[in-house]
Each structure stands twice: as structure tokens, then as C-alpha cells.
Fold these 2 entries.
Entry 1:
Amino acid sequence: MPSLDWKLIAPAAVVAIGGLAFATYFAAQPAAEQPQVEAVVEVAEAQPALDKAQINAAIREYLLENPEVMLEVQDALQEKQLAAQREDQAKAIEDQKTAIFDSMADPVLGNADGSATVVEFFDYNCGFCKRAMADMVSMMESDSELKFVLKEFPILGPDSEAAHHVALAFHDLYPEQYPQFHLRLLGFDGRASDESAMRIATELGGDEAEIRARMEDPSIGERIRATYALANELGISGTPAYVVGDEVVSGALGESVLATKVANVRECGSTVC
């Protein structure tokens, strides 16, 4: 199939666009002042018809010769999708503000009455969460006005779910010892499970029978299911994930990234000022 001659397309496009603009102007003039346009119409009609197959072939040829255009399109599409996702997440954060930042069911580290809040969705068996623990500790040590809300989000199998059930029961019964429990279990060099979580709980003075009785309370499972539902609404599918101000931050991006977003929220109410 012959390639489309762009020397034919360009004049045709120019004439078509020019003819449309002239026609719009012409229609707006009084009848007595309307010019004769037969020549323009004849020129437009004289251009060769554009064959669809030729156009498709020409486009294909152009893209094969300039493949970088597809990368530009892909980047633009990805940016558009990310912008839409951020907009949806910001709306979800606004709609669920109390459940995210001020739920009485969630453990809190740092200053419970702090001027800024970071919410973390985590799993005790998440390697990235373990590495990010040092960032959390450092931020709380350097910022006495920082509140860390912990969303227990077991997504890495039955061991994780069992460990989080122990954690929530321990938090309910021994809230003052929970920060130590959390740091020890998250920093544990091994797999978090019912056994390892209970061992840490009893080493910190917890009564195993009392903890296991509390684990049977339906509210424990309900709180975890509520966290799943909230994560789904926020578009969170992995750990760690943070909510800071009006933004969901996915991944262990480091202390400086989180600290900058916290500072911006304090300054202007958004993670980007």
C-alpha cells in the first residue's frame, strides 16, 4: 500500500480549517456584505480525498520512525492516572477523616495531642515496615508534637493475622506497655506469629490467659476488618502505607520525605504547599 503523501494532507488541512473559519465569519455578516466564496469552495473540493487505509499506514510509519512518541504518550497517561488517583485519595481522606486520624480503636505512639499526625498501615511481617521503623522512631524523637497512629493491617498470611490479634488484645489490656511491645515485635528478627507475639507480650508482664480471652472478643476482628475496608477505600494494597494530611504515601520512602510532608501540612494544610 502506498504511503500517504503529507504534502497533500497539509494543504488540505489548511484549506479545510481556513474554509471553516471563513464560513463562520461569512455567516455572521449581513447578506448584502457577504463576499463570493465559490472559489474557496472549489479549491477545497479539488483536494484529493483522504483514504483511511493510507492514513493508518502513514501513522504506523511515523510511529515506527519516531518510537519515542509512544514513551511520551505513556508518561502522559501515567501522570494523568496518578493525578486522578491522588484526587480520589484526597476525597476519601476528607470523607473518612475521623476514622483515619482519630479512631479510638487504634494504637497511638508519640504525642497523642500532637499538632501533626502520621497514620501508618503496617504488617508485622513486612520487611519494608521493619526497615521503616527507625524512621518513625527518629521522627518522634526529633518532633515532640508528632502523633503516630498505627493501623494494624495484616495482609501477609495467617501468621500476620494471629500476631496482630495478639497485639490488639495486648494494647487493650496493657496500653502503657504497648509501645514497647510494638517496637519489639516489629523489630523481631524472625517471623511474627501467635507464638512470637505472645512470648513478647508475656515478657512485658502480660497474662497469657487474659490476653487469649481478650483475643476472642469480636471487636478485635471487627477492627481489623474495618482497617481492610478503609485501606480499600484509600486505594492501599501494600505496606507500609502512610496517610499524611491530604495524601496517601506508599512505600518506605524515608524519614526526610515524611518529615517534609509533615512540615508542609503544618505550614499550609497540605503535603504540597
Note: The first strand starts at residue 108 and ends at 110.
Entry 2:
Amino acid sequence: MKALVLFSGGLDSLLAVKLMQEAGVEVEAVHFLQPFLPPEIEANHIKRLQRLMAQTGAPLRFVRLDEDYLRMLEAPKHGYGRAFNPCLDCHIYFLRKAGEMLEETGASFVVTGEVVGQRPKSQYKGAFPIIDREAGLEGLIVRPLSARLLPPTIPEEKGWISLDHCPSIQGRQRKIQMELAKKYGLQEYQSPAGGCLLTNKEYGRKVEDLLRHNGRLDLDAMRLLSAGRHFRLSPEFKAIIGKNHNENRRLFFHFFQNRRNPELYVVKTKNVPGPLALGCGRPSAADLENLAQLTARYSDLAPGKKGDVRILCGGPKHRRLELPVTGTKDPSLPDRFRIN
């Protein structure tokens, strides 16, 4: 008998793998990669998850989500949490995808590390039947960490598995999980919560701004949301200003890859150290002036001193501009445009 385990990277899903292995079930784990993770962050994320799963000996496959996932994020049936996190719809989406993989992987049912009462939006008894039904997996989702608190599943009723050795964990306490981690010799694991970018309120505000002004979410724009300071200069134009060398490189690389796009602008102070800024959209003359002044605001241009900002425009002709700026450290300038 084989099970497909949804692996989030947290301790609970690691324990779900071990509990099923103790039940004599062959296990394969799957992790769904959010499509807006920057490449370098995704690479480190994958390495960490592989290291964690190696403790169980179970194979781990990665499935990269695509535009279809973004369409779900734009209009989740069950709404958002405190940030831009449609946790219930997200979980249903992952389980539906896992269900589509059962035949391919040779698995007979799906396993999760969910705990009754741990998450107010998606992990309570009343939510589980909704999740199972809308995922098309009624009776085929096993939650071994809370097994004794939930109705028996098809794998239990048919005698495929026994969950007599499984705990009855509920709520946010971690004592039992820590004891199980020790029992199974798990030396490395991640604490719960906070792993998904969509639960971050600051990131969520940026996603909301993107959706409100662009009308839809796209992968390239989403990947940029985790870099730099974000400013909305007008409904048609936004700016991203790097906070360090790595972010400046990311912004320039994005511009270089998409340099034929006439709605991209790369900005830098002339003869003065400072950050790189990326403009996105269709700016007015006032928008470009504000972008230039914002770029200078975060540079080493001394307050009151005159300087210039260079702007390279995307598109076939790569138009170049220079705009005069005055050094300032006035916090009201970025506060006027900051996305919050």
C-alpha cells in the first residue's frame, strides 16, 4: 500500500511521513512550489526540503505551480485570511493536484500533517469535510496526527492501514510533536507557521496593489514583490528601489531579461553611490520626476546638493534620460508613495 504525503517542510508533515511508515505504508512526498519564488530563494528552499526529507528515507518530488494557481489567488472562493492568504482555497488546490497524481505515483490515498484546531482558517473539524469534498477526495485524506479525533477514512475502513499508533493532537501545542520527533530521531525540522509569503502582511499589500492596478497577477511581477522597497507613483506606474547589492542585481537582471518591454525603466543616480530603481508601467512626466527624486532620496546625495539621475527606458530604442534632482532625507517623500 502506498500513500502520497503533502510535505510543507514543517515538522507536522515530517511526522505524518514517519507515522505512515510506522504503519507499514510506502510513502512518497510531494511539495508544491509557489510560482513566484525568485530563483535563488527557490534553489535554497529545495535544498532545505531535500535535507529534511532525507531524514525519513522517503522520496520527495517537487511540482512547480503555474498560471492556474495565480488565477485561484485572484478570486478564492473562501476568501482571504489576515493578509493575502487564501488558506482554505490554497489547501484545496494542493489536495486536488495531489489527487490527480495518485494514479501516476501508484498511491491509493493522500496524507497530510494537518492538526485539528491548529489553523483557524483551514485546520478545524468543520473545514475538513469541505476541503475533502471540494478536492474530490472524500474519505481518501488521512490526517494521522489527529487520527483519533476524526471519522475513519476509507483506507481505515477497508483495512488498508491501522492508525492505532497515531496520536490525537489538537490545537497549537507542540509537546506531542516534539516527543514524536525525538522518538523518530528527527534532528532537523522547521517550526510551524510563517512559511508562505502570502501570510506576510507587507507582501500581501503588494500583491493586492498589483492585482488592483494590473487587473491580474503575473509571474514576473509576483517574483519582484519580495525585492526592494515598493512605491505606487500613480495608477499606471510603480517603482521598486533596491535595498542592497543583491536586490539591485535582481532588479537589473529583470530589466535586462525584459529590455524590449517599453514599460520598464531602470534608474540610477549619476556620479553618486546609491541604489538601483526599477520603474514599471506607463509613467507621466511627473511620475518620472518622482521616481528620479525617490532614487536620489536613498542615495548618498547630500541634502540640498544638486545632482542628476539617469534613466534607461526599455523598448527597441532604449531611450536615455537625465533628470535633475536635489538631495534630501525627508521621510515624507517616500511615505507619500509607499505601498502599505
Note: The radius of gyration is 24 Å.
